[in-house]
């Protein structure tokens, strides 16, 4: 690979890292070609892009990112074979990795970058797979916001029925007198 090709690769990777809110760094070495293809297919079907990169190129791409990205903790995970998983949904790669690991030893999670937070180590697959997506969180918030309104409406509706019953009872009493 020529110097110009490496420079272009670093720039492309830096742009992708800068635009990505979520990415995972894994080691999928020692998987058979069949298993790698099976894993890539699962990633593809879930909108996850998998790239195998050299650690030095990845390090240079990370170094070009702004400080507010808070990626400092990722440098130690750039040892050994490395593949990057880019995703739009924070927990999607972790769910696939967790399921795949039920029958395979690898891929091993080296690190994950989730919206300026860095998760280091393979033991983070469980917690990462349980993260709620933005859509799930928005649904929870909307449900919580709707709950008080629903309670007020049901109280008003039951109150109107009670009030109507009271008025009817008073009318009947008045008619009897």
UniProtKB/TrEMBL annotation:
One GO term of the biological process aspect: translation
Keywords: Ribonucleoprotein, Ribosomal protein, RNA-binding, rRNA-binding
InterPro entries: Ribosomal_uL10, Ribosomal_uL10-like_sf, Ribosomal_uL10_bac, Ribosomal_uL10_bac_type
Pfam families xref list: Ribosomal_L10
Quaternary structure (record): Part of the ribosomal stalk of the 50S ribosomal subunit. The N-terminus interacts with L11 and the large rRNA to form the base of the stalk. The C-terminus forms an elongated spine to which L12 dimers bind in a sequential fashion forming a multimeric L10(L12)X complex.
Function, as annotated: Forms part of the ribosomal stalk, playing a central role in the interaction of the ribosome with GTP-bound translation factors.
Protein name in the entry: Large ribosomal subunit protein uL10
Source organism per UniProt: Membranihabitans marinus
Gene that this sequence comes from: rplJ
């Amino acid at each position: 690979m020529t110097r110009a090709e490496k420079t272009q690769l670093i720039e492309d990777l830096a742009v992708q890292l800068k635009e990505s809110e979520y990415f995972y760094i894994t080691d999928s070495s020692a998987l058979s070609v069949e298993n790698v293809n099976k894993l890539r297919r699962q990633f593809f079907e879930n909108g996850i892009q998998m790239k195998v990169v050299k650690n030095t190129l990845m390090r240079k791409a990370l170094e070009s990112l702004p400080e507010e990205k808070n990626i400092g903790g990722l440098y130690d995970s750039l040892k050994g074979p490395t593949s990057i998983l880019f995703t739009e949904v924070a927990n999607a790669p972790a769910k696939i990795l967790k399921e795949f690991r039920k029958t395979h030893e690898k891929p091993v999670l080296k690190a994950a970058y989730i919206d300026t937070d860095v998760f280091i180590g393979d033991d983070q697959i469980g917690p990462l797979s349980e993260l709620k997506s933005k859509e799930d969180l928005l649904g929870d918030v909307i449900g919580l916001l709707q709950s008080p309104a629903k309670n007020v409406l049901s109280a008003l509706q039951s109150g109107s029925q009670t009030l109507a019953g009271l008025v009817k009872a008073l009318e009947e009493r008045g008619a009897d007198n």
